[in-house]
Amino acid sequence: MKQWLNHSSLALLVVLAATSLTTSSLAAQQAATGEADFTIFMRGQRIGSEHSSVTLGPDGWTISASGTSGAPLNLSFDTFIAKYAADWQTLSLEISGQMRGQPMSLKTTFANNLASSAIVQTGQQGTLSHKVSAATVVLPNNFYSGYEALALRLHTAAAGDTIPVFVAPQAELGVRVERITPHRIETPETRHELRQFDLVFANPSGPLNVEVWVDARGRLARMAIPVAALSVVRDDLTTVMARLDSYSHPRDEELFIPANGFSLAATITPPAGPAGKAPVVILLSGSGPQDRDETVFGIPILGQVAGRLSDAGFFVVRYDKRGVGQSGGRIETASLDAYTDDARAVLNWVRQRRDIDRSRVALVGHSEGGAIAMLLAGRARGDVRAIGLLAAPGDTGRGVTLAQQQHALNRANESEDSKHEKVALQNRLMDAVITGQGWETVPPELRRQADTPWFKSWLSYDPADAMRRTNQPVFIIQGSLDTQIPPAQADALEKMGKARKGEAARTVHKVVVQGVNHLLVPTTTGEVDEYASLPDKNVSAAITDPLIAWLQDVLKKK
Questions:
Q1: CA angle at residue 220 from 216 to 223, to 5 degrees?
Q2: Minimal CA–CA distance to 317: which of 380, 365, 359?
Q3: Which of 156, 177, 198 is the last residue of a domain?
Q4: Which of 6, 62, 133, 186 is most buried, judged by most C-beta within 10 A?
């Protein structure tokens, strides 16, 4: 019966301890009831959906759901019923459906601090019993509507609280509320006031960071497991016109920029002071489905950079990537070339404005955005005056991917044979993506995730070739504790820039900032698993101050 606990890399193992519960009024509790639809995403791709219902009757709370998930889970279920008493004493759980084409079912009853489970899976039957807390939250792996109960419990929780969670049918673990961050998502119909709960799940194999977003009624709005690139989002928050308002500046103006058959939703932040033709900075975000603020682990990276650049006298543009936030287009068909075309559309639009100086335009990209900045600068030499690269890749996409895998394996508690096998599989997969041959040596679920236009273009990206095509001044800035794009890659970019011909070779400037990670914030180790617990959510001034000084120099009037 271990499949229930460990059947995929997404196995959640959750959280414990006890927290006091505040009983709200019956009217407030009834307001939290109702139905909701959720979409399940992995690595930005839709892999499934769930429909949930929360009711409150004389006997207490009932959370019911149905849903399907594709690879790697291949799960479908028509029955999910979790019952709790009105005071959140746990009563029962019932699940039935199919997993990987095989019938499965689970029935768990709770009494006298004991969870008794009857299981049917892969043609086998079994029973399990575990001691649990009386008010444990039931969260079987990969059934995300169970988080409706956790959301309602978190609604009255505070930072530092712990909540007991039973990963049915396997074990009770503990979840600790590390921090609570308010958010606002705006749609054409309404404004959603949300709170993001950063949780630490006490897994036996090590702590697992999970985000749970709760709306003003206490209902689940979103949950995410960043390390698994998994997110589950309520459908009313996934429309094209939904936008996370994670950062705002008093001079922000929202608008739409015509692109290639669709529009990009953008925010411009003009400088303060008297009207005039201002120098322009276009901000380009990193990989994945990034919004205009590039909000990662609660840090609006480009939002903060935009505000500081505007205060320093620049006209700043940032935008939602295609298929993200309020922008049109489809992320599934995007490639580096497509993202470069989008950036070109923004550049063309900017150059038509009368309140900017079209001879003083800079591109500033973070992470993958640095690659887009170089690609566009090489194609638009006369229209771009300077390039800023923030934690940008200095190796090929393939090289970066292998280095990141190797870094993760170096930290993993696995045998050397297992590590070698994973590296070999990664190489086979990348060869297949690039050539279209050899997919028979790669598991089908990995092909479904990797065989995309973006990944192919990323593996083929060569920063040396992109840099060689540029002739603008280049500013390279890097955190010393960046483990995703290590400082050695900044050194490589500097070498590439100085290998250019003529004056371009003498206009390369590099800065390495001590104690800063890939998200451009102060850190202790720089590791990805530290991101969710970072106490400082502010982009370091040691990043933006030298960037501003350099831009003021290279974009000054001639």
A1: 125
A2: 365
A3: 177
A4: 133
Local confidence band at 436 (pLDDT 50, 70, 90 cut-offs): very high
Q: Kindly state whether residues 442 and 298 are assigned to the same domain.
A: no
Which has the closest alpha carbon to 477: 317, 368, 384, 367?
A: 367
Q: Apex CA 114: angle with CA 80 and CA 119, to 5°?
A: 45
Question: Are 387 and 405 part of one and the same domain?
Answer: no
Q: Is 461 helix (H, G, I), strand (E, B) or coil?
A: coil
pLDDT tens digits for range 180-192:
988 877 776 677 8
Co-location of 31 and 133 in the same domain: yes
Q: Which residues contact 51 (CB under 8 A, 6 or more apart)?
A: 35, 36, 37, 38, 65, 66, 67
Regarding pTM above 0.70, the answer is no
- Supply the range of the domain harboring residue 488: 245-395+461-554
| Spatial CB neighbours of 332, under 8 Å, sequence gap ≥ 6 | 45, 323, 452
Q: Is residue 199 part of a domain?
A: no
Q: Are 331 and 429 part of one and the same domain?
A: no
- Name residue, tokens 């690609």: 375
Distance (Å, whole) CA 366 – CA 368? 6
Name the pairing type of β-strands 315-319 and 278-284: parallel
Domain end, chosen from 177, 204, 226, is at: 177
